[in-house]
């Protein structure tokens, strides 16, 4: 008798097999469909077992050696204390800007994500993803600035959904398209005067690529995203390659580059960097000095060099631990006019209401995720 939970997990893992371009997800354990690839620890290439023609029948962006696909992910992260210097600018002639400084004693983040197939056809796969994120701040001296008091213990939330389509064209060419909508902000009774459109942030990407072998795929395209704080369009290059039994690289440049070392089929070591961006709409608890604003848009961009370990706990259950250093490129506040619209290839420059300078900080995160059960995958591979 088949287990419905394991069967569902297998369906999710196989359908997500080629969606390696999405930021924050590690590609699947069965990177080439419809014929599964050898395990990362297997030194025999696909061509050596007589399956190269079948494996290349449908080109996809993933390659041999990539980690397991993630069906459900739970993540928590903390940063160490860091300095914040704030300039609250005045829009009144003759009134000086206000400068303040304190220490951020808590900056924690957590999220949960889930992915499921809506269409699982050899020539077209459509995947639905949903996510809920939350970020919080605490300050050593929140009374130093109305900005700190407005942000103290405020839950900055992200509720999102996305659709991704992966379309193999032939044995070499493929393309990937994704659209995502998120509600970013505080979502409290205090923010009742903010509308759905105020919170809504849209992003997307399109990448056209080439599968040169079971170990090498690359593509070019464009993203519309908030990676650099403000909604921007910029070019991207996807480059996934496995050089040998242990070493490989997975990248979506410029947002993310990760080098991979496959210790064995149950353990992965990863290292590289990521550029992350956020854009929150919040309702202020009290007006800012000199401008009387009641709402504020916070744009955040950070650069993170990082190291990561992923390890199987038991069959379909894995964990990941990550550590690195956060360099903050921007954490500034804008009014509606200063934030609206998008910029082509760059974040754009508009008047800031709040101009912050944040110190760097080490961070650590813990992640638990569910993947396709290994036993069921081996059973499927044997059929």
UniProtKB/TrEMBL annotation:
Phylogenetic lineage: Bacteria, Pseudomonadati, Bacteroidota, Cytophagia, Cytophagales
Signal sequence residues: 1-23
InterPro entries: DUF6268
Naturally occurring in which organism (per UniProt): Hymenobacter citatus
Keywords annotated in UniProt: Signal
Protein name: DUF6268 domain-containing protein
Highest taxon of source: Bacteria
Record-annotated DUF6268 domain positions: 156-328
This protein's record includes keyword Hydrolase: no
